[in-house]
Design a protein that fits this description.
The complex is a heterodimer. Chain A is mainly α. Chain A contains nine helices and no strands. Chain A has one domain (about 1-240). Chain A is about 70% helix and about 0% strand. In chain A, helix 2 packs across helix 3 and helix 6 crosses helix 7 (about 150-155). The longest helix of chain A has about 35 residues, at about 205-240. Chain A starts with a helix and ends with a helix. In chain B, about 70% of the residues lie in helices and about 0% in strands. Chain B contains four helices and no strands. Chain B is mostly helical. The termini of chain B are far apart. Classes of the chains: A mainly alpha, B mainly alpha.
Chain lengths: ~240, ~110
């Protein structure tokens, strides 16, 4: 019975794949238009935004409002997860890994933090940006929980600090948007007064500051998600 | 052509996992595989054979890849991570009540 079911599912999926292939072949291979937005961005993005990384220029300048909605989705996911997995008391946790791993990670932590801040701050000059650096920032909290035990993570990097970081990141983003209203009349418009020579660290108007806000927001949000999940797991293991 | 074939294979692999697997966590993994297939396909079909869209100086470089699909896919990756985390949280909560992640066993337990 199960074998017949599997074979019929595979046959149906093969037909589905054939239909998809016939449809997808109608897509043209080259998307070449004379006055497409691709030509506008590759010709004018450096002059208009000051950012050498065009992906960052699109994310935090041309469609920065959309990026704000994206970070709101992260905020919604974090809120839902914390609501579902909320727990008042700190459960008994593991005591982490061995002494060697703890000392090694103790030496490595500042460099991991430096690397994440580098990725965030150079988002407009090199590959990277707020989202990517923020994930590395969140990984610091995750390795804290694994290597030192979640009690250490709770004491050194408290949930209050994480909430504060996430909220301040979001407020920095929205605050830059409101300053844009005062400066040039539209929400999240680029603050051209902060521009300098393209290629220097503080060059692309408000883009580095938005990167900073997004980075702290994503890093703290991922740390909160992981902390909520690991908390529940340890509680169930302790009760068994 | 090869992009479409690879995309359809990976996409239907994830869809097969959602249809057949008996664990909710494996179904979430299948959903992530489908997302990965879409991200790969979207980047692959908009490839111009150029370099990454980052310039060295203010001089206009030509033959860059299109930065717009990359920005869109970055949005998609972040949203996919959020929905995966939320789905896994719902599975954790479900596991607390039913001690199972098998979707076939959920109905009988809810009737009790």
């Amino acid at each position: 019975m199960s074998r017949i079911k599997h074979i019929s599912i595979v046959i149906i999926l093969a037909f589905l794949g054939l239909i998809m292939l016939l449809d997808l072949n109608k897509i043209p291979n080259q998307f070449e238009y004379a006055n497409s937005i691709y030509h506008h961005i590759t010709n004018n993005a450096v002059g208009e935004t000051g950012s050498l990384n065009f992906v960052t220029a699109i994310l935090y300048d041309y469609r920065a409002y959309d990026s704000m909605g994206e970070s709101t989705i992260i905020f919604g996911a974090v809120s839902g997860i914390v609501l579902l997995l909320s727990r008042k008391t700190l459960p008994v946790s593991s005591h982490g890994l061995s002494f060697i791993v703890k000392r090694t990670y103790g030496m490595l932590t500042p460099f991991i933090f430096l690397f994440s801040v580098y990725i965030i701050a150079h988002g407009h000059l090199s590959p990277g940006g707020g989202f990517q650096g923020g994930v590395i920032l969140g990984a610091i909290s995750i390795i804290f929980s694994i290597v030192y035990g979640s009690e250490f993570d709770y004491k050194r990097y408290t949930p209050t600090t994480k909430t504060l970081l996430e909220t301040s990141g979001a407020l920095l983003f929205i605050g830059i948007g409101l300053i844009g209203i005062i400066y040039s009349g539209s929400f999240l418009s680029n603050l051209n007064i902060l521009n300098s020579e393209p290629g220097s660290l503080l060059s692309a108007g408000s883009i580095p500051f938005i990167n900073l806000g997004i980075g702290f927001k994503i890093g703290a949000g991922l740390a909160i998600i992981f902390y909520s999940m690991i908390q529940k797991t340890f509680k169930e293991e302790a009760s068994l | 052509m090869i992009n479409h074939i690879v995309f359809i294979f990976i996409f239907l692999l994830g869809f097969y996992a959602i249809l057949v697997k008996k664990s909710l966590i494996k179904m979430v993994i299948g959903l992530n595989i489908m997302e990965g297939a879409i991200f790969y396909w979207f980047i692959a079909i908009t490839d111009r054979g150029g370099i990454i869209p980052i310039v060295q100086s203010t001089q206009v470089a030509f033959n860059l890849n299109d930065p717009i699909p990359q920005a869109l896919i970055l949005t998609g990756i972040v949203i996919g991570a959020s929905t995966s985390a939320f789905l896994l949280t719902l599975i954790i909560e479900l596991n607390k009540f039913t001690d199972s992640t098998n979707p076939d066993q959920l109905g009988g337990i809810i009737e009790d």
